[in-house]
Structure formats: C-alpha cells, structure tokens
Amino acid sequence: MTSNLLKQWFPTTEAPAIMCAPMFLSVNGTLAAEVTKAGGLGFVAGGWDFSPASPYLADLDAQLTTAREILAEAGTIPADRSGTLPIGVGFLTFGPTAARFAETVLPVLIKHKPAVIWLFVPQPGSTTHRDMIAALRDAAKGVEGWEPKVFVQTGTVAAAREALDDGADGIVAQGVDAGGHQWAQGSGVISLVPEIRAMIREEYSDRPIALIAAGGIAHGSSVAAALALGADGAVMGTRFLVAEEASSKQSARDAIIKSSDGGVGTVKSTLHDHIEHRYVFPAPFDGRALAGPSILDERAGVSLAENQEKLKLAVEGGDPSRDVVWAGTGVGLITEVQPAAQILQKTMAEALESIRALRNV
C-alpha cells in the first residue's frame, strides 16, 4: 500500500505507489503527466550538463511546461497552473558542470516547482549531493507553497547512509536487476531493501524517510514483494520504456518485447558505454542492457575497437540490431506496448491481487 508518508508528500498518488524512473532520453513531459494522472508519480530527466547553454535544461523547461498543461487540463492540478507540480525531475550529477546547479538548474526548478528531485551518480568522494540539496532547500524557502523532496538513487547500504547524511528525504534502493546504470557491485532488492530499511530504523528514526525499491520490477507481484520487503513504493523503468508516450526508439521497444529470460537476455557490463565511446560514468558504476551482438562478440574475443567499428557501420547502414538497449531483468514480463495509464493501472491491480492472495497464506 502507499505509505502514509508518500501520500502526505504526494497527494495525487494512489495505492500502491508506483513511479516511472527518470530515464534520460526516454521519458518526457507527456509520459510523466500520464503516469501522475493515473495515480502514480511521473518523472522527467534533466540530464547532466548544467552549463548555461545546456540543451538539456532548455528541454527540461519545455517538458515541465507540457506536464503542467496536461495535468491542469485533466483537473489533477488547479486550472491556473499554480502550486507544486506533482512531477519529479531526475539529474545525473557526475558532470564537470555539477557545481553550477544553483546557478542554472535552480531557476528552472523554481519556475515549475516539481514535487521531488532525484539525484544519481555523484563523483566518488565529492560533496556534490550535499551541496545541491542545501542549495535546493535554501531556494525553496523563498517560494511560497513549495517544499520539494529529494530522492537519491543508491545501490549499497553505505551509499544510502551517505545520501541520508547529505540530507536526502528518500532513498531509491536500486538492485542489480535494474536496467541502465547502477553500482557495478551490489545485490538485488530482496536483500538490499530490508537491509536499508533496518539501517534507517536504527540510525535515522528521528525523521521521516521514504524507501523506494527499484530494479527488475515489471509486474504487480514484484511491487507487492517490494512492499513486503519494507519499501514504501516501487519504481519501474523498463516497463515504461515501451509505453506509447515514451521517447524510446521503435527498435528498442521491439527488442524489449521480444526478449525473455531476463537474467540471460540482459547483462551488466561497461561495454554498453564503451561501445558508444562513452567514458563519463565513474568507476563504481556499470550498466545493464540487452545482451545483443556486441556482447556476444566480446565474449567471442572481438576487440573493443572492432566492436565499435561494427556498431558504427550498423548505424550508418540503418541497422538497429547493434544498438545498446538499456533494460532490466524484468524484460520477460513485458509483452506489449500500452499507454502509460494502462501500464500503471494494470500493475496496481496485479499488486493488489498479489497482496489479497497472501492473506490466505
């Protein structure tokens, strides 16, 4: 069930609380708004470039405007478009312009007043998140009726503790079944979530803290399991990649729907980044994606340079088969493209059915 805490923070959410992950380049204002309209909590992505000329920040402004218009038209928020926007914004915080957050990002957030900010991937040993959270708190004091919450995505108990010491209101406990970027070494939600819950109970009982489970959740039974483990709600990422409103490529949607046996059909590797000449993520992180031809070639001894050349030629020839498709181990449970609202409502119904069935155990 949606915890009283999440309902208090996000009044438009319904039980059980399900959120759409802020997947960079895949989510948008329409998807986020449709998730929120249906009783979940939608997110948009703010990217990692916080320079004044950042195209990501210009896009963020546009996506939040779109989300507010849709929600106002639906009656989810006041028609005058005032008040807190029941949408979240996710940021990747490892970039060289992270220190410009207060200068360039905060004005966009103040303009739109999103309900929650989600932070992920600081440089190891930095004070980036502590500084960002402090700047956000200071800025919010000057905006009437805006009390944004801060979630930090973590993959270990130690990282969760650090996030709470930095001032986070909520922890997104990401297990290794998740698609996309994550801790290179970690555990699944079945052990991660209860251990973080125990840590919160023992060390931070003096303040309200939300715990959200993420990683491999693509069916309502997984949401029910997350709640049983001690989570207040759950995040779905891969499931929403195939939503009608998502910005995903059609080839990626098709690949996800055709996939099965997620523990075999997906793989964690830094190759997913390096194949695209992307070396920006800090060392503690890798990512999970579909086990496509590049992974199979690597296993067969193909060099990185040759693999990169194969991808280049495929892209030039219009062949998407070697594209990196970020996806979690729940891919085998995803069988069709649906509107976001239907995905959310179906998952909620599955979760409630699972909970009711357990009452007979």
TrEMBL record:
Keyword vocabulary terms for this entry: Dioxygenase, Flavoprotein, FMN, Oxidoreductase
Gene Ontology MF terms in the entry: dioxygenase activity; nitronate monooxygenase activity
One Pfam family recorded for the sequence: NMO
Keyword Oxidoreductase annotated: yes
Protein origin, superkingdom: Eukaryota
Annotated PANTHER family: 2-NITROPROPANE DIOXYGENASE, 2-NITROPROPANE DIOXYGENASE FAMILY, PUTATIVE-RELATED
Name of this protein: 2-nitropropane dioxygenase
Annotated source species: Microdochium bolleyi
Lineage per the UniProt record: Eukaryota, Fungi, Dikarya, Ascomycota, Pezizomycotina
